[in-house]
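User: Teach me something about this protein's shape.
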Amino acid sequence: MDESSAWLVAEAKKRATAADDYAQQAFYTALAAFCQEQGRQIELAEGEIDGRSWNHEQW
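Assistant: First, the predicted structure itself:
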């Protein structure tokens, strides 16, 4: 996960703990989970692109 994604997840978690009502807490918790998953998917896609670019049989 890159630096900006890590910041966004940390900020969402911080706001979830500081939220007054359940709806806000649930929103920020879901946002943090979504951002973590999105970062994981981006990392997987980057790895796939890197792997395909080095595979000379698929050129």
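Now, about its shape. The chain has a mean pLDDT of 89. The chain has one domain: 3-58. If you'd like, I can walk through any region in more detail.
User: That's plenty for now, thanks!
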